[in-house]
Recover the amino acids of this structure.
């Protein structure tokens, strides 16, 4: 049984995701379709890319990932199928997959034929990408049959920044500020302090390491640094949002 | 494998939808249950009807659609199973299916027995409609066995309005104002302007036809006119909501 | 085919729930996974417990319920598998299951080994609980194999309060104020008045028993008293929230 994941900026209030499920079921009735998230902020390609890379390890090789954050829908932007370390991605070629490509061993890109007539100019997730994702999952289509190969794009600047210096990329349901700073960037990930918004926050292991209502920084469930308030919201407490710079310093007073 | 769709005004925060899934699984373990939307505004029968008609083409004949927007739950309002062009609908007979009936070739209505004792007076989706939907999907029940036939209701006024004149029916996640004006109403759907809230907006093909932050009108993924702001929200930009009149005029200055 | 339910405070905007589905699918591909709710307010153990008890009757014996509201994640709080009247619960031992235990005939508690190394200190739903839930559903693991038995905890005070006197525990999508007062507490559940926020509200049978915009109290779909406004929101109308005391009196003026 194959898995198809969905990651979009469609939200769950409109019937858009339900119709994607209908198309995927039509093309591959036996697939298990898993909604990763539909709450990517509208047009936020970078946020989508962050989570695509972060959730990949939790899905088996062979998974087909349908990812659509597509402000250029209906224009001549390219659409691709990307084979990335045994996973298959389907979506627009607009930077959405750059985080994946940057950390992948093997990337093979296939251009989707832009001349196929479609039922709409604004819903390519349903009319272009979901039919291809479903056929890839069912085996009715292989990546090589999709279209000509494209060159692997150069790595995005994400890999060139200074170790321990990053920014807030996502605010989760608990108000935790999730950054792009990875544990392996630090020599001693359990020590030191985190500088954010003019404050120094102690590094800890889990939320309950500090008193209720206090700030703590820790490496969260997807391996990146996050700033939290125990049983509260760091987002509300600090009034900081996505894009805020964050820096880890190795000890107090340095 | 049969498909059961769900469309309600229940939201997804309460455990109501999860319990519907439990009942459907009990009655038809092999069915694929697809949530179309649960974000119909409370009691908004007309919005629900709009989407029921719009999503129908994306599901195969034989699909069982469980649709519940039911302000009269527990009263003597009628409950029905409706066969509409090969699809089967289950829900209250309160206008919810009028948009479907208005455009259907074949409609057969069956009255659900109102005397069956139920576990609640307020959750007929779970106690009345889901068991019937599940049995229709499994084949344990046929529409004819549900109850006596009712006459097809007269068409709603939706079909009698002037071509190209409609209103905003839905605001989607992107702030697009989705109307009930259909492409086939217009002689030249790619030309002309859209009048809304005292403004004239150019008709286009897709969102990126205009500059970032600019207004555009286009025919969206479900075939009706929508008003959008590229990479922004027409809803916020225009401060217009559901019910706003919209009119297409064939050329500037007319 | 086994059922696994999910009830958490994770929301549906983050990719957390999608990754839980991935882990459950890995451990038990044939299971039907049903999301009961992910909208428990952060850390609201009591709200979660209320719904766990309320939805249980709608799932068959043998269902595995994964429930995670876990403010002490990563500390030495205990983690358990609980067998409750034929259902199996997996989650933290922090009071989450107290409502279930209080009304159960049979409870058997098994301590999950706290020394197993985990991939994170903050996402035990994914790293600890979901793998166990999946293996329990597949039959690869039995509750007895999980770990040593713990004593059944003493009943929570919920069962000792005065009949007909309770509080608001949940506000649903319609703005209905759902309480913990059960129908069987009252000698005559269809008569009398409900006192809340200094008002007396007539008991009714369903929402449409009163005029549009009027208040009504009734026993809702899960058997507890709720306060509603017909086609409106009691929450907005009364400006009352979770925790508000509610009392049923048997007749006017008493």
């Amino acid at each position: 049984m194959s898995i198809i994941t969905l990651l979009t900026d469609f939200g769950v209030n409109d019937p858009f995701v339900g119709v994607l499920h209908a198309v995927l079921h039509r093309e591959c009735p036996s697939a298990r379709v898993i909604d990763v998230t539909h709450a990517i902020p509208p047009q936020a390609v970078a946020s989508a890319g962050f989570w695509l890379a972060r959730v990949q390890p939790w899905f088996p090789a062979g998974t087909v990932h349908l990812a659509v954050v597509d402000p250029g829908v209906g224009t001549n932007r390219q659409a691709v199928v990307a084979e990335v370390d045994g996973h298959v991605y389907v979506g627009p070629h607009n930077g959405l997959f750059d985080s994946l490509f940057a950390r992948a061993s093997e990337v093979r890109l296939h251009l989707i034929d832009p001349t196929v007539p479609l039922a709409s100019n604004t819903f390519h997730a349903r009319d272009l990408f979901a039919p291809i994702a479903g056929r890839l999952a069912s085996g009715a289509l292989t990546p090589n049959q999709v279209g000509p190969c494209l060159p692997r794009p150069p790595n995005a600047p994400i890999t060139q920044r200074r170790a321990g210096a990053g920014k807030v990329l996502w605010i989760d349901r608990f108000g935790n500020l999730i950054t792009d700073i990875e544990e392996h960037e630090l020599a001693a990930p359990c020590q030191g302090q985190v500088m954010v918004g003019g404050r120094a926050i102690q590094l800890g292991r889990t939320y309950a390491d500090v008193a209720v209502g206090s700030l703590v920084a820790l490496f969260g469930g997807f391996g990146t640094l996050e700033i939290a308030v125990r049983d509260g919201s760091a987002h509300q407490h600090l009034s900081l949002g996505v894009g805020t710079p964050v820096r880890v310093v190795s000890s107090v007073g340095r």
